[in-house]
Amino acid sequence: FCCFLVVFFTFYIIVCRVVEMRIKLYSTIIFGLLLWCLYVVFFRNTSLGNYPSSNGKNFNKYMYRNHPVVNIALVVCGHRLQESLAMIKSVILYNQYNEESLYFWIFAEDKLKPEFDERLSEWRSLKHFDFDIKPLTFPTINQREWKTLFKPCASQRLFLPLLLPEVDSVLYVDTDVIFLSPISDIWQYFYRFNTTQFAALTAEHEDENIGWYNRFARHPYYGKTGVNSGVMLMNLTRMRINKWVSRIVPIYNEYKLRITWGDQDIINVFFYYNPEALLLLPCQYNYRPDHCMYINLCNVTMDGIQILHGNRGYFHSNKQPLFKAVYNAVENYKIGTNPYFDFLIPLKATLNENQVKETNCGMLSKETLLIAEKIFGRYQKDT
Asked: Major location, coarse class (predicted)?
């Protein structure tokens, strides 16, 4: 761009010397407009735009020019801070060898912001990503009800299309989620959306015999067994076009006395009436205890477990210790150290313990480690 300016002004000076003063004024205006048009066409459109950083300033947009930006959104209240940090760490861990640039949009209580900022700033000095910590924002009407729906602040994600007006697409995840694959694996499902779809979720159950929605729900739900909202791809641009928020609020007002699982039930009602707007994801992108605690309901033999969801507190209980073992391995891993020796080897050792192997979910140790073996195996010879 600087070279362009030099050439432009050199040519401009030559023109000014050979024309009259009156022509000089017109040429100034014309060349100024031409300069602006060329800048917009050839330079401004090549960037991905400015994104606000955690300190309130704009980070360097040019560092993201040659890499796609993957947006991850999460909502954190109460005691969920450590869980959310483990989730973020798992994303960074599995994504450190990919070209995608990570951007975390964190909606959190004010009291949690200092520790978030301290920890993430420390990690950012070691690995390339960025983040923004935003305040919780709910509709003024029924604000208290929205904030306490099901779990504290969980319904915040329903309003992401309005809260992130500058973002086109985002992956929303619950805090009790651990990534066991690069985020690009699930992000590529955005490119599978047809013209009517603007969200993607996994089924709540694979077996109707043990499904919750088809046996107990008192409201409409998507498909045969409903959907689980713990991992959700959201095309925010299309959701804004389709007036998602203005259609969600009436659903809550009509069904609020009949819903059990809060925002997830509202999402199910919406997609019951609008099934053309939803893409169903494979179960390995939201693998939960229900998939393995009784019988194997999700076939992950070929692709492995991509995203592990320790809902109902399974990351912190010994009911199915595989979930706790994975969570602890991620939490204990230090960003910037060797992922093979400091993450994969300790996790393999824990999964090989009898208390893990003798459980139904513990029999899936190979599928749990499948992608990690491929990604981190290159560091086996490092010292």
From this structure: membrane
Angstrom CA distances, 114 to 80, 174, 371, stand at: 14, 21, 34
Q: What is the pLDDT of residue 147?
A: 73
**pTM, 2 dp:** 0.82
Angle between helical axes of 81-95 and 365-376 (0-180°, round to 10): 50
Domain ranges of the chain: 2-46, 61-281, 312-379
- Confidence bin at 50 (pLDDT 50/70/90): very low
Q: Which two tokens stand for residue 189?
A: 């499902």
Per CATH, the homologous superfamily of domain 61-281 is: Spore Coat Polysaccharide Biosynthesis Protein SpsA; Chain A (3.90.550.10)
Whole-Å CA distances, 362 to 8, 169, 205, 285, 321: 68, 35, 20, 18, 7
**Overall average pLDDT of the 124-140 stretch:** 90
3-class secondary structure, 303: coil
Under 8 Å between Cβ of 362 and 351: yes
Binning pLDDT at 50, 70 and 90, where does residue 142 land? confident
Q: What integer pLDDT is reported at residue 361 of this predicted model?
A: 97
Phi, psi of 240 (to 5 degrees): -65, -45
Pair of tokens at residue 196: 């009517």
